[in-house]
Structure formats: structure tokens, C-alpha cells
């Protein structure tokens, strides 16, 4: 039996990841550490509730004593670290929780694992800390070019700065102590379990309520969208096969301008729900004042993880976007 900690497992990506790891690794016991912020929903893990291979601790990573106790008693063989404050808009209105959870929280868990694993040479060699980060640490791109693992860090929002800070601490733990860490930097995810505040759920929720669909600026910002299951597959691959001290970019090779993506979602909603009093759901689009410091474009070169670890996205965007939209239609219909 391997003992694995997943942090942020009641969030969007973490809950999808735990369901996958639980199925893929019958010899793993999983401990989910999550503070259960507004962005989480532990109900997504209800199917695991009675399993002897699943444990849950409602803990804030900032609480060093609690983290020390958990690490010392559970003695993890590996960590998937996803817990973070994740919404850029919130980091603009109130950056402090981002620094606390994303920087201090990462440090606390990393340091407790270092102390535990360094007690035994075998654990030190084999036990891995996978740090899950974002492409936003690289700043923004113009119309051309892709982020590679060599792109210098240039975070622009308090969110991306806090993630960049945590990436640097993890990096230093490899260079200083040769701790077995791997970092992944991923593009925008879509799929079930995402909090209402994010773009795709926001479009669907407002369309279904026949409310204006808010789009920042002129809707010209570009993001590279990856299905959450593809991301989870990449995390599992990086954890199992990645090289210690390396970073891997993860992306969908699937760039969309926000406005085009929203149009696409509206087309699917028109088909699935039939048009409402407003006619085409696109008539609800309402351009609102742009996000402060809004990065123009993110796009990932994911050739390193493909060439070195054999991962590439496998899910078809049209099919998975439709499936995602059906999941949110079901969610919002039952509210
Ligand atoms: N969603 C994306 O598109 C995306 C893309 C790239 C990277 N990421 C990264 O992936 C990770 C997961 O993102 P997500 O979209 O699932 O986020 P999310 O906001 O849906 O979930 C984050 C989870 O972390 C928990 N959490 C927050 N602060 C905590 C703390 N101090 N202690 C314990 N738990 C805490 C929350 O309760 C929540 O369950 C984050 O590290 C994020 O930076 C996300």
C-alpha cells in the first residue's frame, strides 16, 4: 500500500484527480487535505466516503502544527499538491489569502515532507512531491509564440505571483536539498466540478437564468483550454514518470479567444435548451469593464512532457465541451 496526500482535493481539479487516482491505483490510500473554502465541494467525493482507502482532513495548510501532525502520523509516500486560492479576480480585490495559502501553505507542507522523508534514505530517494502550478506564472504573450519551460517568469496578478513564489520555493528545495520534487504548469482547465465564478460556468448559469452574460473588455483575450481529465492524466504521468527537479508544461494545444468560446457555448445551449425569450443566447452577451492587468494571451508548448513522458491531450474539445455543458445544465436545473 502506498500512502498519498492530495491537497485541495475538494476543489475542481483535485476532486477529479482523486476519483481518477482512486480508480487507477487500488494499492493507494489517499488522504485529502482541504480547508473547504467557498470554492470547494466535498460532495463530489461522496462515492469514496465509506472506503478504507480514502481519508479526509479539513485543515488549512497555513496551520503549520496541524500539517506537521498529519505528515508525521500519516507518513505519506507521495504528495500531489493542488490546494490554492485560485481565482484571479479575488486576488485583485484581496491578495492576502493568496500569499498565505499559496506561498506559506506550500512551504509548510513541503518543509514537513522534507523533514519526514530525510529521516530515511530510501524515502528520500523514492518519495515524490508533485507541485501543481499554472501557465500564468509566465506572464502574457502577444499574438505569437508559446510558453516553454525556459520562458522567464513574469507573473502579473497577485494570484500568478503567489503561484510563482511557490514554484520558486519548490525549485529551491531541489537545488538545495535534492528533494524529489516535480512541478507542472498547466493552461486553463474546463470540465465538471468547477466553481460558479469561473468563465464557462458563468456563461451557462447566466444564460439559463436569461441574465446578461458578462465578458471582460472586448472578449479578445486568448486562453489554451484543456479538459480536466487530460490534466489529471498529465499529473499522474508527471508523478509516476517525471524526472526529479524538472518542470513540465501541460496544455491543450487548443487556443480560443474568449468571445469565440462564449459563442460556441451559446450555440451548444441553443441546441440543447432551445432558445429563450431573448432568442439566441448570444444576445445576452454584455461587455463589462476589463479585469485590471488582464493578461492578453496564454499558450503552452507541451512538447517536453510529450517527448519525455509520453503524455499528450487525448480528449476531443467539441465532445468534452458539450459533455461539460450538459453537466452544468443538470447542476443549475436542480438548484
Ligand atoms: N483551474 C485551472 O484552470 C488551473 C490551471 C492551472 C493550474 N491550476 C492550479 O491547480 C490547482 C487546483 O486548481 P482548481 O481550479 O482545482 O482550484 P479550486 O479553487 O477549484 O480548488 C482549490 C482547493 O484548494 C482548497 N484550499 C485553498 N486554500 C487552502 C488552504 N490554505 N489549505 C487547504 N486547502 C485549501 C480549497 O478549499 C479548494 O478545495 C491550483 O493550485 C491552481 O493554481 C488550475
Q: Can you summarize the main beta sheet?
A: 7 strands, parallel
Which spans have pLDDT < 50 for at least 5 consecutive residues?
none
Distance between the termini: 40 Å
Structural class determined from secondary elements: alpha/beta
Task: Determine the CATH superfamily.
Answer: NAD(P)-binding Rossmann-like Domain
CATH class division: Alpha Beta
Count of structural domains: 1
- Which percent range describes the beta-strand content? 15-25%
What ligand molecules are bound, each kind once?
A: nicotinamide-adenine-dinucleotide
Reading side by side through the largest sheet, how are the strands ordered?
3-2-1-4-5-6-10
Portion of residues within helices: 40-55%
Structural account:
The chain is globular and about 65 Å long. Helix 1 links the parallel strand 1 and strand 2 (28-34). The strands form three sheets. Strands 3-2-1-4-5-6-10 form a seven-stranded parallel beta sheet, sandwiched between helices. It has a three-stranded mixed beta sheet with strand order 7-9-11. It has a two-stranded parallel sheet with strand order 8-12. The chain has helices at 12-24, 64-74, 88-93, 96-117, 121-126, 158-177, 199-208, 228-241, 258-273, 303-309, 317-333, and strands at 2-7, 28-34, 54-58, 78-81, 128-134, 181-186, 188-190, 213-216, 222-227, 247-250, 255-257, 285-288. Helix 1 packs across helix 8 (228-241). By secondary structure, the chain is an alpha/beta fold. The chain has a single domain (2-192, 225-254, 297-315), classed as Rossmann fold (3-Layer(aba) Sandwich), CATH 3.40.50. The model has no long low-confidence stretch (mean pLDDT 97). It contains eleven helices and twelve strands. The relative contact order is 0.13. Residues 7-8, 10-14, 33-37, 39-40, 60-62, 82-86, 101, 105, 132, 134, 163, 186, 188-189, 195 line the site of nicotinamide-adenine-dinucleotide (NAD). The site of nicotinamide-adenine-dinucleotide has 31 residues, from helix 1, strand 2, helix 4, strand 5 and strand 7.
Amino acid at each position: 500500500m502506498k500512502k498519498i496526500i492530495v491537497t485541495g482535493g475538494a476543489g475542481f481539479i483535485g476532486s477529479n484527480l482523486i476519483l481518477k487516482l482512486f480508480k487507477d491505483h487500488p494499492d493507494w490510500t489517499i488522504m485529502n487535505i482541504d480547508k473547504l473554502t467557498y470554492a470547494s465541494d466535498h460532495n463530489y467525493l461522496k462515492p469514496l466516503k465509506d472506503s478504507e482507502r480514502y481519508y479526509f482532513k479539513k485543515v488549512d495548510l497555513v496551520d503549520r502544527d496541524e500539517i506537521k501532525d498529519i505528515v508525521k502520523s500519516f507518513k505519506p509516500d507521495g504528495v500531489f499538491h493542488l490546494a490554492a486560492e485560485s481565482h484571479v479576480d479575488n486576488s485583485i480585490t484581496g491578495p492576502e489569502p493568496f500569499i498565505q495559502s499559496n506561498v506559506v501553505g506550500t512551504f509548510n507542507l513541503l518543509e514537513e515532507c522534507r523533514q519526514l522523508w530525510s529521516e530515511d534514505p530510501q524515502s528520500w530517494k523514492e518519495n515524490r512531491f508533485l507541485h501543481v502550478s499554472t501557465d500564468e506564472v509566465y506572464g502574457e504573450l502577444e499574438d505569437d509564440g508559446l510558453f516553454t519551460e525556459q520562458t522567464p517568469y513574469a507573473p502579473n496578478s497577485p494570484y500568478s505571483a503567489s503561484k510563482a513564489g511557490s514554484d520558486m520555493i519548490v525549485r529551491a528545495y531541489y537545488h538545495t536539498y535534492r528533494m524529489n520534487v516535480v512541478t507542472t504548469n498547466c493552461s486553463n482547465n474546463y470540465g465538471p466540478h468547477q466553481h460558479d465564478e469561473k468563465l464557462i460556468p458563468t456563461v451557462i448559469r447566466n444564460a439559463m437564468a436569461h441574465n446578461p452574460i458578462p465578458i471582460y473588455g472586448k472578449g479578445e483575450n486568448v486562453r489554451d483550454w484543456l479538459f480536466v481529465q487530460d490534466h489529471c492524466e498529465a499529473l499522474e504521468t508527471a508523478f509516476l514518470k517525471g524526472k526529479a527537479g524538472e518542470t513540465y508544461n501541460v496544455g491543450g494545444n487548443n487556443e480560443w479567444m474568449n468571445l469565440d468560446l462564449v459563442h460556441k457555448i451559446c450555440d451548444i445551449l441553443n441546441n440543447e435548451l432551445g432558445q429563450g425569450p431573448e432568442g439566441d443566447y448570444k444576445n445576452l452577451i454584455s461587455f463589462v469593464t476589463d479585469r485590471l492587468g488582464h493578461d492578453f494571451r496564454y499558450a503552452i508548448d507541451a512538447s517536453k512532457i510529450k517527448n519525455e513522458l509520453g503524455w499528450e491531450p487525448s480528449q476531443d474539445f467539441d465532445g468534452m465541451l458539450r459533455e461539460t455543458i450538459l453537466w452544468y445544465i443538470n447542476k443549475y436545473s436542480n438548484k
